[in-house]
Amino acid sequence: MSASSRRRSVKDFQFGNKIGEGSYSTVYKAVDVYSRKVFAIKILSKAHIVKEKKIKYVNIEKQTLNRLGHHPGIVTLYYTFQDESSLFFVIDFAEYGELLTLIRKLGTLNEVSTKYYMIQLVDAIKFMHSKGVIHRDLKPENILLNHDMKLMITDFGAAKMLDENGNAEELQSNLSINSNGGSGENGDDKEKAASFVGTAEYVSPELLQHNECGYESDIWAVGCILYQFIVGLPPFKGSTEYLTFEKIIGLDYKFPNHFIPDPIKHLITNILVIDPKKRYTIKDVQEHQFFKNVPWTDFNYIWKRNPPKIE
Ligand code: ATP
Description:
By secondary structure, the protein is an alpha+beta fold. The chain has ten helices and nine strands. The strands form three sheets. The protein has a five-stranded antiparallel β-sheet with strand order 1-2-3-5-4. A two-stranded antiparallel sheet has the order 6-9. Strands 7-8 form a two-stranded antiparallel sheet.
């Protein structure tokens, strides 16, 4: 069996620096000892996942990434394996970290950079939706930048998968965890009907009010992200989660006094619409005047152009 087709294990990678830590994972930079290709490896402690009842989320992440396969705007999951204590997810390495860090460093993105990254974000979301995946937690922390500053969506732990009829797909419980703590069954199947997924600032009004979350909810997040690119902060931000939710439901946001190009304001206004049926669709977004003359079917235009000079 060739090195590329057989099942991987820890021994196949040289582990480098720790990149970061999540609430139930640690991410390391690692090199494939055969191909010398650089990856990020997310290590999840089995005991911790079982104790914190996160099996379901880990399963969702694995299954959605497998379904999405390879797309430049979405982190690819190359291999998964486990040892006695941990699960390992081998994914694309994002050399420049989170888009949030870039926004914070720059304060705001200018119009050219905003358009450059929005084109990639919209293309990646269109692909994701075409595969029946709703991300449900889109935000600048979950958008990473690769070695040549192209974006990649990550963190599919809150995602929902739909079948071709638009019905929620049953999650297969195929993650076998062999530690003492659990059998691989979901510890938290009886999710509360009104449970909140996502991050307060980017959550859609229909999720807050009616516990509905469709493709439109990802578009709502795109509107919040576009606003954040150009203004520096998300549109709805209260001092507590509750106050943030009130602002979202009341569509309580303003554009600051400094100059924001009219097409961007117009686009944001048509995405941040309370009724998901009246909200811009991904097609409306692509056809908007802000993206005039963008060749949406030209892969090279979207994914191969050099990024604008970031200053
Ligand atoms: P939580 O699970 O609590 O929401 P998280 O999603 O940030 O946190 P991880 O996905 O484990 O948790 O990521 C931990 C850190 O590693 C983050 O700072 C993230 O930016 C970074 N990171 C995650 N994936 C990659 C990657 N593929 N390349 C580079 N850095 C990454």
